[in-house]
Design a protein that fits this description.
alpha+beta, about 140 residues, globular, about 20% strand
């Protein structure tokens, strides 16, 4: 399920022009590096094109996204440990949804809305409270 939410502020994004790496750190501390190819963005129909959710799903990382990646829930909550400065700024709508996520930090973002510009590699933590990963026992 994917699409857009016409009721929220449109995020301003800068898509990458060169390859970069996003390393996802799962709740069991497994590190999953994903090489992002700008020519293949979007990887699918879910989340903003080039978002961390789009990248994760394209790499087979099953990140929860109950609303279909349209910034209407907080289930794709991620913590950007390194490289946050290369990502678009969070909108007020994203911050409102993040307020509903458990265990948020100053580096928290919604995977569906956080779009890196490719100027640096990222390290992204998937919180242990991510329902899909816990439910499926990854």
């Amino acid at each position: 399920m994917g699409g857009t939410n016409p009721y929220i502020e449109k995020a301003e994004v800068e898509l990458p022009t060169k390859p970069y790496t996003v390393t996802f750190v799962t709740p069991d501390q497994k590190r999953v590096p994903v090489q992002v190819d700008p020519g293949k963005i979007p990887y699918g129909p879910t989340g903003l094109p080039g978002s961390l959710l789009d990248i994760a799903l394209g790499a087979g990382i099953d990140l929860e996204h109950a609303c279909g990646g349209v910034c209407a829930c907080s289930t794709c909550h991620l913590i950007v440990k390194e490289g946050l400065q290369s990502c678009n700024e969070a909108t007020d709508d994203e911050n409102d949804q993040l307020d509903e996520a458990p265990a948020i930090t100053l580096q928290s973002r919604l995977g569906c809305q956080c779009v890196p510009n490719g100027t640096m590699d990222l390290v992204v933590e998937v919180p242990a409270l991510n329902k899909n990963l816990v439910k499926e026992g990854h």
